[in-house]
Write a structure and sequence with these properties.
Elements lengths: L13 E3 L7 H10 L4 E2 L1 H7 L1 H6 L3 H5 L2 H4 L3 E2 L9 H8 L4 E3 L5 H11 L8 H7 L3 H10 L20 H22 L3
Parallel strand pairs: 1-3, 1-4, 2-3
Helix pairs in contact: 7-10
Length: 186
């Protein structure tokens, strides 16, 4: 028997690999205004995609009806460390967008956006921004400090960590640029 889906599955996808606070929402808005079905941050949150990324459950993301039924993808988990390599291997014909802004302005925007706290879920944030050791130490030191598994909880500060975050931001951008120069320069 045939199964009819209420959407068209396109083979070409567009992934915004830019980190948070670099224009990903505006990119999604632009793509939506130009007829693309855009998978947004709220969709990722609803489907627990960032949490699944943090648990290395990539096939759960790639095989989802949500991924197959959308054309463009902004914000998380697409920008998360090295995930772009898996996305490229899964969708080698996709188009990829990377916006780079001044590192210090990016950090200031991140701090201001979250009022100095981690963006989204603390565990996922700490994994993405390489702060798990600090998170585990905090949990060991304070048994009442236990972030949610995947709910937004903003438990740690990002203030006064400019060097750490800027270094990771610059590293991410360089890795993406270098990867695509080698794999798919067009």
């Amino acid at each position: 028997s045939l199964i009819y889906l209420p959407f068209k599955i396109n083979k070409t996808k567009i992934f915004c690999l830019s980190m948070q606070r670099t224009g990903t929402t505006s990119t999604g808005d632009f793509l939506a205004q130009n007829g693309f079905r855009v998978f947004r941050c709220k969709d990722s949150y609803r489907n627990k995609f960032s949490y699944k990324w943090s648990q290395n459950k990539y096939n759960s993301i790639f095989n989802s009806i949500e991924l197959m039924s959308n054309d463009a993808f902004e914000d998380d988990p697409w920008w998360m460390p090295s995930f772009f390599k898996r996305i490229y291997n899964k969708f080698p014909n996709a188009k990829f967008i990377l916006f780079i802004r001044d590192s210090d302005k990016w950090y200031n925007s991140m701090v201001n956006h979250s009022k100095g706290m981690t963006l989204g879920n603390t565990y996922v944030h700490c994994r993405a921004y390489r702060r798990l050791d600090e998170l585990y130490q905090k949990i060991d030191d304070d048994p009442n400090f236990l972030p949610s598994e995947y709910e937004r909880d903003n438990k740690l500060t990002v203030e006064n960590m400019r060097d750490h975050y800027v270094k990771l931001y610059d590293k991410h951008n360089k890795e993406v640029v270098d990867f695509f120069k080698k794999k798919s320069p067009e």
